[in-house]
Amino acid sequence: MTEKTDVNECSRATDGYPPVLDACCGPKMFWFDKSDDRALFHDRRSEIYEIKPDRAYPKGTTIEIAPDVQGDFTDMAFPDETFWLVVFDPPHIERQQELGIFTKKYGCLNGDWRDMLRRGFTECFRVLKPGGTLIFKWAESEHSVSDILKLTDAKPLFGHRTRQHSKTHWITFMKPPCGG
Fold this sequence. Notes:
Layout: H1 7-10, E1 20-22, E2 39-43, E3 47-50, E4 62-65, E5 69-70, E6 83-88, H2 101-106, H3 113-127, E7 128-139, H4 145-149, E8 158-161, E9 168-174
Parallel strand pairs: 1-2, 1-6, 2-5, 6-7
Antiparallel strand pairs: 3-4, 7-9, 8-9
């Protein structure tokens, strides 16, 4: 007879971590449940921005960046091979500082951003379990997805472009199951 496994027992991956990591969560825009306990939300920022009211944003609208763990996606403080799924949605707009609504929501690329993204890919794969999945999201507002994919040696499995202007790409990678 097969022994039943408690679902809550299975929701933790390694050393008490949940199975999913959102490496740079920002305001968790694409999450159905912004406090999903199957995920650990990570971002370098932890802040609330009040948005100036206009037609798109009523008075009192805020952007909240509230990660579970605050840290840099290029140097994460998690053990190797911790998560089954990593979501990597790094900033994609090049600016010196976060001034407008988009950069306040999503952050910005500055300095040697190519090296930053290269190190981000490396870290995401480091904390991913063998056979685990990396979901990468990139918006081609300033830099093409083909140029960004050159920043990792990992080979994508498949991807999808969003319909609106076809500029946002969702790309899926799988870490080799046996270190290959």
